[in-house]
Write a structure and sequence with these properties.
GO terms for molecular function: beta-galactosidase activity; metal ion binding. With 681 residues, this protein is an alpha/beta fold. It is built from 17 helices and 29 strands. The chain binds alpha-D-galactopyranose (GLA) and zinc ion.
Length: 681
């Protein structure tokens, strides 16, 4: 827990506000304030891309417009999140100092354009950022409107210029000390890749077809460290001048499947921010999955970002309608905006903020959803739905700061994801590590059982059940962490493609690591990768389940067999086992199964661990119930993610915060309807 929290007792509602695009339109700026009140918006993120308005020519600073806007928002009763502008820079800077431009992985210097494309090493860029950030801190660091700092925007990408190459080499020297150690970790002699001088190290590139997996992995680790280093450089003046103001930077997800952002290890980054915030853009109403299945993915990713600091987080950006960058930019159906906004709060967010307050008039985001459309009207549907969210957030304001408690954890590890994606073997089209975790998560989401998604940095001891599928990369430290967890009474679930390599992606020798053999009571021999159309079957508790993609062939030692393969040359061999180890238990799921198996398998574990007891609301398919707790009360968010009316049975009576009335026995939810129920403990 950090001691810096957002000093405002409202749930934040508002979002990215770019008055710098409208300085020649005084009537629009005036109208913004009127509309902000009508939208029941209270927080605005200013300055994200305002560098050219703040410093139109080198060394000449214009703050008047920002002074005026911050003051006007404050007078209206609103608060401000102030961004540092490094996400995009003025054209004069790129022209005068080309070193600030990024170099692509095929070693091409980029031209000015786009955004999020500066070199993280450039001393000149760092100097320019330090100057503008200090000026912002001096001018606004103690302004009563200032709620928090928003550093840059959606940090991402890498730079392959000479400065970055040198930094990478220094990072490696610090990590390995000697070339012998580096060459051992990278398995240097393979294809004659032994490095004989540090200057021979080059960042991975498609031109170089880098197949040195240790190098690829270290580059990704370096990029995370270098991005954090840039962020730490940005916050120096802010910490110095405004030490009590919390600092965040907005994280992302990789959209189509809403899997964790792949390019940066956020479990490392999270250590350096006061509050985790992130930008969430699910493709609601798409044509490849049911609403409830997408809702489960939204639950998963929010639980991951909440669990990074085990405290409430912020949704920094979301859209009131559609976006402009999905394959198809569909608008949210009536009701979905309130439902999806409440889902953020249900999973631990203390805000619903948008990109963007007002649709820009030109350039690439002029058709991106916004609270205020080009019609500047408060009567259109989207504005009305936003204002309804504002009203709902006011009614449930007391949930701010409350926590989620989970007894189940699913492990997600960024480095494992990188190494497994890079591994040449198995099948690239079916590895799907984060998607597999989403499936395990589903078995709990459907039952309304809270789950934390934790990384390997975190403590496991407080969880009754830890699920760590496809943990391909396991260092000896990780193995002993898992061993301690089970030995001390925990229940652990592992799966196919686990425990195969160490932290530099070198295969473990002497077969499956001895400690894993002991924990699971088995010895893994082979992983059979199936063609996408291949199927096998396993029997479990007298029922048959389809399996595909991966089958582990293993020998049973002490474990009890729970399921066996029905076909192929390993017919009759164990497929799923359980093993008692120390005071705990370990399960190994050898094959990729259909969802029904995971649901039934986890139902047994849920019963055994009493994870599903004391339900106040009976499960209803497609209706998700999520809980937040304060010391005295708890809150249940009951969310209908179906296109049908649903009747839900209550075992206790509750106070409905949205409708301000008592609810008991049964509630009816219209399609996409949400209700927030409160009960004292
Ligand atoms: C990101 C950016 C915003 C905006 C939105 C559009 O989240 O941070 O500036 O471009 O995407 O969805
Ligand atoms: Zn660079």
């Amino acid at each position: 827990m950090t001691d810096k929290t957002v000093a405002d007792n409202r749930l934040l509602h508002g979002g990215d506000y770019n008055p710098d695009q409208w300085l020649d339109y005084p009537e629009i700026l005036k109208d913004d304030l009127r509309l902000m009140k009508l939208a029941k918006a209270n927080t605005f993120t200013l300055g994200v891309f305002a560098w050219s308005a703040l410093e139109p020519t080198e060394g000449e600073f214009h703050f008047d417009w920002l002074d005026e806007r911050i003051e006007a928002i404050y007078q209206m009763g609103g608060r401000v999140i102030l961004a540092t502008p490094s996400g995009a820079r003025p054209a004069w800077m790129s022209k005068k100092y080309p070193e600030v431009l990024r170099t692509t992985e095929n070693r091409m210097k980029m031209l000015h354009g786009g955004r999020h494309n500066h070199c993280f090493s450039s001393p000149i860029y760092r100097e320019k950022v330090a100057i503008i950030n200090r000026k912002l801190a001096e001018r606004y660091g103690n302004h009563p409107a200032l709620l928090m700092w928003h550093i840059s925007n959606e940090y991402s990408g890498d730079c392959h210029c000479g400065l970055c190459q040198d930094n990478f080499r220094n990072w490696l020297k610090k990590k390995y000390g000697t070339l012998d150690k580096l060459n051992h970790a990278w398995w240097g002699p393979f294809w004659s890749h032994t490095i004989t001088d540090w200057s021979e190290v080059e960042s991975p590139s498609s031109i170089g077809e880098s197949m040195v997996h240790g190098l690829n992995l270290d580059w990704k680790r370096f990029v995370t460290d270098q991005t954090i280093d840039f962020y730490k450089h940005e916050i120096v003046p802010l910490r110095e001048i405004s030490p009590s103001i919390p600092i965040t930077t907005n994280f992302m997800a990789d959209t189509h499947d809403l899997i964790p952002f792949q390019s940066l290890n956020y479990s490392e980054f999270a250590k350096h921010v006061d509050i985790v915030s992130w930008d969430c853009y699910p493709a609601w109403h798409n044509d490849w999955e049911e609403t409830k299945d997408l809702a489960a993915k939204v639950g998963f990713i929010n639980d991951l970002y909440r669990s990074l600091k085990q405290q409430p987080f912020l949704i920094m950006e979301s859209t009131p309608s559609g976006v402009n960058w999905h394959d198809v930019n569909k608008t949210k159906r009536p009701g979905m905006h309130l439902l999806s906004s409440m889902q953020f709060i249900a999973h631990g967010s203390d805000s619903v903020l948008y990109f963007q307050w007002r649709k820009s008039r030109g350039s690439s985001e002029k058709f991106h959803g916004a609270v205020v459309d080009h019609d500047n009207s408060e009567t259109n549907r989207v504005f009305q739905e936003v204002s309804a969210v504002g009203g709902a957030l006011e009614k449930i304001a007391e949930v701010k700061g409350t926590h989620k408690q989970a007894r189940v954890a699913i492990v997600y590890d960024w480095e494992n994801n990188w190494a497994l994606n890079d591994a040449q073997g198995f099948s690239d089209s079916t590895k799907q590590y984060p998607q597999t975790l989403q499936k395990h998560y589903q078995s709990f989401w459907k039952k309304d059982i809270s789950v934390d998604i934790v990384t390997l940095n975190q403590e496991l001891a407080s969880y009754d059940l830890v699920i760590a599928p496809m943990l391909y990369m396991m260092s000896l430290d990780t193995i002993s962490k898992l061993e301690n967890y089970v030995a001390n009474g925990g229940t652990l679930v592992s799966s196919y493609i686990s425990g195969l390599v160490n932290e530099t992606d070198l295969a473990h020798l002497s077969g499956w690591p001895a400690t894993l053999k002991r924990i699971f009571g088995i010895d893994v021999k082979e992983t059979d990768t199936l063609y996408p159309k291949d199927r096998n079957t396993l029997t479990y508790n007298g029922k048959q389940y389809e399996i595909k993609d991966y089958c582990t062939i293993f020998e049973r030692k002490e474990a009890n067999i729970l399921a066996t393969y029905m076909e192929d040359f390993y017919q009759g061999n164990p497929a799923v086992v359980e093993n008692c180890y120390g005071k705990g238990k370990a399960y190994f799921i050898g094959a990729r199964t259909e969802q029904a198996f995971l649901d039934d398998f986890y139902e047994e574990l849920q019963k055994e661990g009493n994870l599903d007891s004391e339900r106040e609301i009976l499960h209803k398919e497609g209706v998700s119930v999520q809980r937040r707790d304060s010391a005295e009360c708890y809150y249940l968010f009951v969310m209908n993610f179906t296109e049908q009316k649903q009747t839900v049975t209550l075992k206790e009576s509750f106070f409905d915060l949205l409708k301000q009335e008592i609810k008991q026995e049964q509630i009816e939810l219209l399609p996409y309807e949400v209700t927030v129920l409160k009960r004292e403990k």
